[in-house]
Here is the input.
Amino acid sequence: MGILIKNSTIITQNEGREVLRGDVLIEGSRIEKVAKRIQEKAEFILDGNGKLLLPGFVNAHTHVAMTLLRGYADDMELDEWLNKKIRPLEKKMRESDVRAGSLLGCAEMIRGGTTSFNDMYFFMPHVAKAVEESGMRALLAYGMVEGGDEEKGRMEVKIGEEFVRKFNGKAGGRIRCAFGPHAPYACSSSLLKKIDGLSKKYKVPIHSHISETRKEVFDMLKKERKRPVEYLEHINFLSKRLIAAHCGWITKREVKILAERKVSVAHCPVSNMKLAVGGVSPIPEMLEEGVNVSLGTDGSASNNSLSMLETMKMCSLLQKHQRWDPTSINAQQALDFATRNGAKALGINAGSIEKGKLADIILIDAKAPNMAPLHNPISQLVYSANAGNVTDVIIDGKIVMRERKIQTIDEEKVVEEAQKAAIDLVNR
Amino acid sequence: MGILIKNSTIITQNEGREVLRGDVLIEGSRIEKVAKRIQEKAEFILDGNGKLLLPGFVNAHTHVAMTLLRGYADDMELDEWLNKKIRPLEKKMRESDVRAGSLLGCAEMIRGGTTSFNDMYFFMPHVAKAVEESGMRALLAYGMVEGGDEEKGRMEVKIGEEFVRKFNGKAGGRIRCAFGPHAPYACSSSLLKKIDGLSKKYKVPIHSHISETRKEVFDMLKKERKRPVEYLEHINFLSKRLIAAHCGWITKREVKILAERKVSVAHCPVSNMKLAVGGVSPIPEMLEEGVNVSLGTDGSASNNSLSMLETMKMCSLLQKHQRWDPTSINAQQALDFATRNGAKALGINAGSIEKGKLADIILIDAKAPNMAPLHNPISQLVYSANAGNVTDVIIDGKIVMRERKIQTIDEEKVVEEAQKAAIDLVNR
Here is the structure.
C-alpha cells in the first residue's frame, strides 16, 4: 500500500549522486523502493511527471518562533538590534506567541521544501506542539543562558532536562530533543561539562552558537587566552554530538579540531551577511579536513526568510565572492549541505532517496519558466529555484503539502493568528 | 472604464515614500487616481485585499535570450565559462533560439513582478517580438563588438542603427531602443564617439558594460593610462544618456565623475558574486555623490535567475557584508533602486504609484506565510518575498498576469519550446 510517486526526475543524493527518471514507493514512514518502473499497487499514486523529486531540506539552525518578529527590526547594528529591539520583545513573549510564531514558521518551511529543522528557543513545549500539528520533523532544544549566575544555570539545566525527558521521541519519533547551551560565552565551563554529561546520558545532541561574531572571539581570547573552539576542546566539550551553528570566525587550526572531534557545523550565510558579522565560515577548508557542513537559515528576525533554496545559493555565492573563485562550492556541494549533511548533523536517517531511508521527500515543478531549460537539474535547484516552485512535501511518509496546498494545518488561520499575535506583542 | 484595484496596501514609492491603504484607478496606459476610496466605475475591478500594490520592478541590465543557457555552465572560471562554454554556444544560436530564450525570460520576469527590462544581445528583432507578445516593456540594444576591426565596427553600427530606426517606439511605445557598445575595451574611441553622436541624433540611451572585472581595469590602465570611467570622461562619452552596467571596480574619483555626468549605474550583485569578479560597486559612495543607482540581474547564464526580489536582497546584504555594517543599504533604498531609479535610468515615466505615471503595477500576496506578520511591508518585500508571492502584473494598463496565470502568452508552450531549442542548440 503506501504512496507511489511516478515518473519524476529523481535527484537521489545517494553515494554516487545518481539522477534518474523513475518511480519511488513509500511504505509507512520509509522509502521502500526506488526504480525506473514500479508495478506494485499503492494507496495513493502521485504523478511526478515534469517534477524533480529529492530529499526534503534540513534547516540545521533556526529559531522558528522568531518568525513572529520578522521585519520588526532591520538594518541596525547587531548589538542595538538584539538588545534594544529583539530582546525586549522576547521578554514580553508568551507561550501563545511562541506557538503562533512556530506554526507560521512551519508553514513557511513546508512551502519552501524543508522537512526537518534544528531549533533552539524558549517555551519549547509550544514549539513541539507546532511541529506535531504541522507534520514536520525537528530536533528541539531549550536555549540555556547562565550569564555568570550559577543558580540561574541550575534552573536552566532543569528546564532543558525536563524538556528532553518529556518530549524526546514524541510525535511518533518526529520530535527529538537536544540540549541547547546558547554559546560558550553565555555558559560556564562547569555548566558546559554538566550539559555534555546529560547529552551522553540521554543520548541526544547538543546545539550551540559558536564563533558567530568577532567580538565573542576576542572576549574569549581575553578571558581564557583561547579562541572559542580551542577553549571548548580544552574543556573536552567537543564531540560528534555537537551541532555548532555559525563558526564564521574560526582559524584553520580550529577547523582541524572540529574535524578531529567530528563536530557538525551549521553554516548560516544569509543571517551572517544581513547582520554583517564580517566573518565567513571557511567551508572549503572544513570540507578538506572532513567536517560535516550543513546549512541553516537562522531565525527570521535576522534573515528574514526560512528558505533553504535561498540559503544554498547564498552559501555558494558567498564563498565564490569572498575568495574571488567562481569554482568554490559548486551546486552539488551546496545541495549536499542542505540534504545529506543536514540529516547527518541532526542524526536523522534521511537526506537521500534510497530504500530504508525515512520518507522525507519533496517535489519541485521543473516546468516553471524560472526552472527551464533543464540543462542541469542540480544547477536549477541551487541557483534558480525559489520556494514558489515546491509543489509537494512528504514527511515521515505522510503527505504534508499536495499541489501547493498544506494538508496538516489551516494555513490561512495560522497566518491570521500570527498577525494578531504580532500586533498584540508589539503593543503589549 | 479602465481597471480599479480596491483595498490593497499601496507602496507608492512617491517622493514621500507613502504607504497607504486604498484604491488605484487605471485609465488606458496610465494611473488616473490613487486614493483611500475611489467611487468611479471601472471595466475591471480587482480585489487587492491582503495584497501589496507597488510599481513593477525594472531590471536595468540583462541579456534575456541567455535564459536559454541557464544552468549550461556553472562554477567555472569567468574566462573559461565565457570562452569555452558560452561563446561557442552563442555562435551556434539561431534567430529562433533568441526568440525562444527571450519568451522564456519574459515569462519568468512577469512571474517575478518585473515589468520593464534593459537588454543587450544579438538578433534583437526577435527579442523585440518576445517583448511585444509578452506585453512587457523594454529598452533594447544590439550589442556592438568591434574588437580592433574597424570594418567590423562599421557593420556593427549599421546593424545597431537599423534596429533603432525600425523598432524604437514599437508595440505602442512599450519597446524603446538604445545603442549597445559592449564595453570600452571592445570598442575604439572613434566608434564610441560615433555611437554617442547617434544616441543624440535618435534621442535614445546608450547601454554598456563598465568595469565589471579587475582585468579590464588593468588592461585599460596599461593601454590608456586611465581607468575605464576616466578614459570615457576623457573622450567625452559620459552623459545622462548612458546606463553603465556593473561598475564594480571603480574608485571614488570615478564615482564623482559618474555623478557629474549624470550617468545611471545598473548594479548586478548576484551575477558579480556568482562570477566572483571580486569588486563590489561602491553604492553608498554613489548615493552620496548623487549617482542614480538601479539594479539588474544580468543574464541567466551568470545568475541564474531573473528575480529582482532576490537581487534587491542581495544588493543590501552584499553591502552590509562587505562593509561590516548592517545599516548599509536599507530595505527602502534597495526598493528604490529596483523601481524609481530603474525607471529613471531607462527613461520611463514609471516607478511610482502616482497620477499620470504609466500603469506598470504589481500585486504581491501579503498573506503568504513567508510574508507574515506585516510589521513592515517594505522589509517583507525586500528581505522575505520570493517570485512565488507575485500574484498580478499590469503593464501599460493591461493585465499581463492575473492570480498567477500569465494572460499574454501560453506559458506551457513557451517552456516546452525553450526546452526543445536548448537541447537542439547543445547538440547542434
Chain B is about 40% helix and 25% strand. The longest strand of chain B covers residues 3-11. Chain B touches chain A through 73 residues (CB under 8 Å).
